[in-house]
Amino acid sequence: MHDDFTTIAWTPQGTIRLIDQTRLPLEEVYLECGTVDEVAHAIRTLQVRGAPAIGIAAAMGLALGARTIRETDHAAFCAALEQVGDQLIRTRPTAVNLAWAIRRMLGVARQSRELPVADLKARLTAEAEAMREEDIRINRAIGGHGQALVPNPARILTHCNAGGLATAGYGTAIGVIRAAAEAGKRIKIWVDETRPLLQGARLTAWELTKAGIPATLITDNMAGHFMQRGEVDLVVVGADRIARNGDAANKIGTYSVAVLARAHGIPFYVAAPISTLDLSLSSGKEIPIEERAQTEVTEIGGRRLAPVGMRAANPAFDVTPASYLDAIITERGIARAPYDESLPRLSGEA
Ligand code: MRU
After folding, report:
1. 134: Cβ–Cβ under 8 A, 6 or more apart, which residues?
2. Does the residue 2 lie in any domain?
3. Domain limits for position 233
4. Same domain flag for 47 and 162
5. Fewer beta carbons below 10 Å: N end or C end of the chain?
6. pLDDT band at residue 146 under the 50/70/90 scheme
7. Where does the pLDDT of residue 4 fall: very low under 50, low under 70, confident under 90, or very high at 90 and above?
8. Considering the domain boundaries, does residue 36 fall inside one?
9. Which residues contact ligand 1 via a Cβ below 6 A?
């Protein structure tokens, strides 16, 4: 089963083509980014969003930026490239894939001392493309491992969008769902709408409909009701950053779903690539949480809901403590508690 859309890709002209996620599901519009500023803007405004997708976008953005650097000396070129990387890393703080992708690209640049700078620029474009293609393979592997945890039949609840749109394709949590469907399992998905920006209602609903996977949209506050009635068999969500102890940051509202799942004895799984692990953080308390504009809460789709002057809080992510997770599904296999042993082992650190 292939996605029938392309989240992000190089154009033949060497620019970046992105599906504009702020316009979905009403319009399927693609935009073209030819400069680092345009890529940074697309990430900041969520035209491209989801941890792996913003990592790939940043890598491609860095390759774009590299082409405009005039320095021909290798060290001076790398110094200029680091500045471009800093600009891209500053766009969004929570998903660690962004910094991971920039680090990998800068590593390639630093190690390619023997290449003339002109060739190094082409090498960086190729590296970003390799990361994009690799991400799809990774998600298929996550799907393969994760679908083994899905009973047949199954009613699966997911929060936010961890699908093809949030990655280079196929998805992480939705990758598990796609793989279960491909394995012939009879599945039905509960889609949390995911206020404030409605990634569930707009994006997950769009993807699942396109894929022909039966799905029902619910508002976030309905999850407990359906769990209490025995209508949810498991929960699978993505992640933006996972600390060494397994604490996982994901879209705001994920923690509430995890607590509800535990209260009802429902398995709760996080599906994420190894690049989402941040083993330098001992716990989720150290994960920076992005605070976004108050208008995302006081308005919906640009239409004001709350009284003028009303303050609103808008943390974009929350942290689910590892004790609420039944497993973390990665491309290298399934990690279980104690995560401070299983995650370093899977990441190849140990
Ligand atoms: O603010 P967003 O839309 O970028 O948040 C996205 C999420 O929280 C996803 O669940 C997460 O990045 C995992 S995507 C495979």
Report:
1. none
2. no
3. 144-347
4. no
5. C
6. very high
7. confident
8. yes
9. 46, 49-52, 95, 160, 162, 166-167, 172, 199, 238-240, 250-251, 316
Q: How far is the CA of 33 from the centre of ligand 1 (A)?
A: 21
CATH number at 307 reads 3.40.50.10470
Do 12 and 47 fall within a single domain? yes
Q: Is residue 251 part of a domain?
A: yes
User: Are 272 and 51 within 8 A, CB to CB?
Assistant: yes
Beta bridge partners of 157: 190, 235
Catalytic residue among 220, 240, 247, 326: 240
Per-residue pLDDT reduced to its tens digit, 170-199:
999 999 999 999 999 999 999 999 999 999
| Number of domains observed in the structure of the chain | 2
In ligand 1, the atom with minimum distance to the C-alpha of 238 is 13
Q: Hey, what amino acid is at 111? A: Q
Q: Is residue 1 part of a domain?
A: no
Residue 86 annotated as catalytic: no
At 17, which CATH number? 1.20.120.420
Global confidence as pTM:
0.97
Ligand 1 atom nearest to 197, measured from its CA: 3
Q: Which residue, 50, 69, 278, is CA-closest to 159?
A: 50
pLDDT at position 301: 87
Order of strands, edge to edge, in the sheet holding 317-320?
A: 277-278, 241-243, 248-251, 317-320
Residue 335's H or E segment, with its range, is: strand 333-335
Helix (H) or strand (E) holding 274: none
